[in-house]
Amino acid sequence: MLAVGPNGVGKTNLLESLHVATQGFSPRTRTDAQLISFGSTASRVAVRGTRAASPIEIEVVLQSAAAKQAKVNGAALRTAEQLRSETATLVFTPDRLGVIKGAPVARRAYFDRVLGRLSPARASLPAEYGAAIAQRNAALRLRSAALSTWTQQVAELGSQLVAARKETLSLLSPPFAERAGELGLSEAELRYAGEPPTVEALEARLDRDLERGHTGLGPHLDDIVVSSGPRDLRAYGSQGEQRLAVLALLLGEAELIADRRGFAPLLLLDDVLSELDPSRRAILAARVSRAGQTLITATDPSLLPAEPDQLVEVTRGSAR
Ligand SMILES: Nc1ncnc2c1ncn2[C@@H]1O[C@H](COP(=O)(O)OP(=O)(O)OP(=O)(O)O)[C@@H](O)[C@H]1O
Ligand SMILES: [Mg+2]
Description:
Bound molecules: adenosine-5'-triphosphate, magnesium ion
Structural class: alpha/beta
Oligomer: single chain
Strand order of the largest sheet: 6-10-11-1-12-13
């Protein structure tokens, strides 16, 4: 589906509302109040469709003074975040370029979300490791007796996290390289830069850690190298190449999700066509037409070099 309209009419709003309806949160902000129309105290988004050939209806209600609520086929979920295990949605927004060109923290956060989507049982591992690091850092600053316990925890959870991240990358690398190659990024690769932390390595730098009051080793400092042949795209990719790399990550993950869950994710691609040359736009259009349901936003229908199944014209306050 292609949603078109001039700047500022609400195309991104429409796409964002589909993300909220299927995932329970916005890709843009964690402040739910921003999702409620100015001057109102609540908003509601409801979608109807099919999931693995069965009908599904979802409703999410956001209120300025209460927790958001979500229902699937009429049954209330405990939290709206649970929607993540019900439906799969992958989103591209222009600020996702930060995954390639941003600081390592942006890549770690992105790939940890991929980890959670591909291995739901381990989705909480990054947060558990983060909590252990916070505890160890507090123990360093207080010079507390609990320090050695937290050193052990950091080594244990850190090793699990490094292993899970490496496993995620080895799953994602082949479809990523394939989609990237198709989009003209040859020999694309994902490589984990970091080693599992050990108690010995942590203790070997204890003096420095005590002095600084934080843990200077472990997967909270690791990075993921994204390259095309010998070129590191983090530093040397052009804007367009960085965009293609993000798209290849998303399309590669979509295939893995379709394999694992038995249904393709919903793809939401905001402003994806600008900055791509016509031949790459055509390749992308052909690829998404074979993927699951996709919503693309653009300011002009001619930007998509293919006939969309559905064309939606967005004007202020309506989409038809
Ligand atoms: N909570 C809100 N209540 C009412 N209007 C809002 C709210 N949040 C954002 N807006 C406004 O909605 C309008 C539409 O924004 P949106 O980002 O969806 O436009 P767009 O069609 O995607 O434009 P572009 O082509 O520039 O990306 C903007 O003018 C924005 O200021
Ligand atoms: Mg927009």
